[in-house]
Amino acid sequence: MPTEIAHMPEEQLKPRRDKGKIWSHVRSKWLLETPEEAVRQEYLCILVNDYGFSLKQIDEEVSIPGPRGNRNARADFVIWRTVQDRREGKTSLIVVECKADNVAVDQKTYEQGANYANNERAKFFVAHNRRSTKFFKVDLDRRAPNYIEVKDIPHADASDKEIKDLLSQLKPFEGKEFADLLHQCHNIIRNNEHLDPAAAFDEIAKILFVKVWVERRLKERKNLFTVEFLKTQISKSPINALFDETKEAYRADKIFEKDENINLCPATVEGIVKKLESYNLSETSEDVKGIAFERFLGGTFRGEIGQFFTPRPIVEFMVRMLDPKEGERINS
Asked: What residue ranges do the domains of the chain occupy?
């Protein structure tokens, strides 16, 4: 447990503005209110009010060696687990990288944050603007940049176990994320394998089943369905070795043929697994998965093989009207 815990102040921290300037609570001085500075000072209030960190745990505009030893690299915020850790010169727990709203929070930002976190030896980093906030963990035993998206960063009073749990948990899909990712996986297959949409989707579905099975089998352990994990498998076709185990697990459901395989080259498989490895598919809600498949299949197949979906509001209305019970069948 931390030796000194910061508690949320009785009064909420708020941004202070005056004549084109904004107050830095950490540095105790007025700064020109640029778009990025406004985002930074507003996010500081979230770190204090919502996460419970004290200003004494946070430093701002911290010089951190960047890629290729760039000494001009500066992290927006560096957060220590305790005030005592900061006093003793220990490495921080979290690095935060903020961007103005007109600057995309994208892969370039993620790599920048991952490099900062790795060089600072911080286990987490945040990439933030007002439109998007992403949380990541870094593996300090691996070279930068390496990063995997997680659900959140620790709060100020997080226990060792809570931090460990955050590091081991993957992020469930939200909203249209899953549909977007399915499109990205489909594009990888289209570009590498030149399969028609139906065949491409069939291959994606097999890999998704493997992912769910691996997640459930390794429920109490860190995610192992990664490109790195595939490369460690002693098999001519690592993905098909896992697929064979998946087919056996779902044998009673009669989903796959006994001799069915994943018919993709290793580079294509690795590209898809890389896209999926940050997410927890087994913890993603059925609604999110269902809507994602509707959007993906409707957009991919419409006009090509005549596949259409009834709009979801109509489906929901029909279900409410019919009120079907388990075991009943509805004939069209």
From this structure: 17-168, 177-322
Distance CA 39, CA 256 (A): 50
- Reported residue count of the chain is 332
Task: Give tens-digit pLDDT for 261-290.
Answer: 999 999 999 999 988 887 777 666 555 455
CA 293/CA 288 separation, integer angstroms: 9
Q: Which of 288, 296, 277 is nearest to 211 (CA)?
A: 277
Angle between the N-to-C axes of helices 197-217 and 177-193, in degrees from 0 to 180, rounded to the nearest 10: 120
- Return the number of other C-beta atoms located less than 10 Å from residue 132's C-beta: 13
- Single-letter amino acid, residue 47: L
Confirm if 124 and 118 have CB atoms less than 8 A apart: no
3-state secondary structure 232-251: CCCCCCHHHHHHHHHHHHCH
186 pLDDT band, cuts 50/70/90, is confident
pLDDT digit string, tens, across residues 45-77: 999 999 999 999 999 999 886 555 555 678 999
Tokens 């209030």 correspond to what residue? 45
Distant-in-sequence, close-in-space partners of 238: CB < 8 Å, separation ≥ 6: 230, 231
Tokens 């906030």 belong to: 133
Helices (H), 34-121: 35-49, 83-87, 107-120
Mean pLDDT of the chain: 81
pLDDT surpasses 60 at 302 = no
CATH architecture of 17-168: Alpha-Beta Complex (3.90)
Which among 280, 284, 225, 236 is positioned nearest to 261, based on CA atoms?
236
As a whole number of angstroms, the distance between CA 324 and CA 327 comes to 9
Distance CA 244, CA 87 (A): 54
CA dist., res. 67 & res. 78, Å (int): 18
Two tokens, residue 29: 């001085």
The answer to whether the beta carbons of residues 273 and 226 sit under 8 Å apart is yes
What is the C-alpha separation between 51 and 45, in angstroms, rounded? Answer: 9
Give the list of residues 6+ apart from residue 82 with CB closer than 8 angstroms, or none.
2, 3, 4, 5, 6, 57
